[in-house]
Design goal:
This protein folds into 2 domains: 212 residues, no CATH class; 135 residues. It contains 14 helices and 13 strands.
Length: 386
């Protein structure tokens, strides 16, 4: 087998990232033949891509702030320290997960190769790193779920790089996924960035199978329909090759109604950061208030559609309230309600591109749903040029 060395310029990085996400089946064999030193892969590929998430979260927190009934912005120093800590620990994690992947390969009929294990882990992480861009707008952080596509990439690369037989690739992936989850749970604790968007430790339970039809069931994260994944990848490629422009924040602001039932709009603001724009209004009535937000994530919306293909779903309920995340026609829908404070949020994606969310206090979750329903979907589509 002839080994090759790929282009390591910035253009080469972009081309490789695009190839591994859009055409993973064709790209993994190419990667397997490459003789690039692990040090070069780390410095020229992992270092810049791993920075996307921490930098996006840092900038998003400073530009937009975080909304929990009210909006606050963390201090620059604390946000910067958190970003640096997350970045460093994620890079350290690459080597730990690579060691685990290398150690596990022979146990699933594959071959040990520390260099190939490192390539497998780094390149499969591409989707997760790129999904970090959603941190630019804090209200869109949940879209980081599309980073789960990295598990599918790892599954496809297990054979070409680690020689794991196809019938054992799902099991190999699942066990490695558990290692990744445990690792990043530790990283989250060390950097004080705990998240339960995908059910926390519940991901450690579940079954692994590859039934007919090309479906892979990973621990706790639902099933992955490979056909839907490939279609989502085609959607991403189609969006990336177009000339999609972000809708102006002022146009989104114009969609916010002057009132929602008895609630009157008391303030409005809008802004744009990179590939995302957002407008939000504050509504008040009878001592209660909520915010109605409309966001355009442009081309990233095609990436967000990956979450629907992954079939991500979460349901949680107790005496104080409930929360659930589902997908409807490939669009994520998230609903939360706290009975004790009569507050919550309702969010839905529209056309795999726009996010509409109402969050705050209300008489019931139905009022928040009604607020979301006031946004004219037809006008959103026209703004997008659809």
């Amino acid at each position: 087998m002839t080994e090759t060395t790929p282009d390591t310029t910035d253009d080469g990085l972009v081309a490789r990232a695009k190839a591994i996400i859009l055409k993973p089946r064709e790209t993994w064999p190419v990667i397997a033949r490459e003789a690039t030193p692990s040090g070069d892969i780390f410095t020229r590929y992992a270092l810049p891509l791993a920075a996307i998430g921490p930098v996006a979260v840092f900038l998003g927190g400073q530009l937009f702030g975080y909304s929990v009934g009210f909006t606050f912005r963390p201090s620059i120093m604390s946000a910067l320290a958190m970003a640096i800590g997350t970045y460093v620990m994620s890079l350290v994690g690459l080597f730990i997960v690579s060691f685990v992947a290398d150690w596990l390969a022979p146990k699933f009929g594959g071959e040990s190769s520390s260099r190939n294990a490192f390539k497998l882990v780094v390149y499969s992480m591409t989707a997760s790193w790129i999904a970090g861009i959603f941190g630019l707008v804090p209200s869109l952080l949940f879209l980081g779920l599309v980073g789960l596509y990295s598990f599918y990439l790892f599954y496809l690369g297990a054979g070409p790089l680690m020689k794991v037989p196809q019938d054992k690739a799902a099991g190999y992936t699942a066990v490695t996924v558990v290692a990744v989850i445990v690792l990043y749970a530790c990283i989250g604790a060390l950097t004080s960035r705990l998240s339960d968007m995908v059910g926390g430790t519940s991901l450690l339970t579940g079954t692994v199978s590859t039934p007919d039809g090309g479906t892979v069931s990973l621990p706790g994260g639902g099933s992955i329909d490979t056909g839907k994944i490939e279609q989502a990848a085609k959607d991403i490629e189609a969006a990336a090759s177009g000339q999609t422009a972000t809708v102006a924040a002022s146009d989104l602001q114009a969609l916010l109604p002057a009132s929602v039932g008895s609630y009157q709009r008391t303030s409005v603001e809008s802004g744009k950061a990179g590939p995302a724009s957002q407008a939000e209004g504050r509504y008040e009535a009878d001592g209660k208030s909520f915010r109605l937000k409309v966001s355009d994530i442009a081309v990233m919306g095609a990436v967000a559609g990956m979450a629907g293909a992954l079939g991500v779903e979460k349901n949680k309920e107790d005496a104080d309230g409930y929360e659930k995340t589902t997908t409807v026609d490939g669009n994520l829908v998230q609903e939360k309600w706290d009975r004790s404070s009569s507050s919550g949020s309702f969010m839905t994606m529209v056309g795999k591109r726009f996010i509409v969310e109402a969050e705050g206090e209300a008489a019931s979750i139905d009022q928040l749903k009604a607020a979301v329903a006031t946004i004219d979907v037809g006008k959103l589509a026209s703004l997008a040029g659809n």
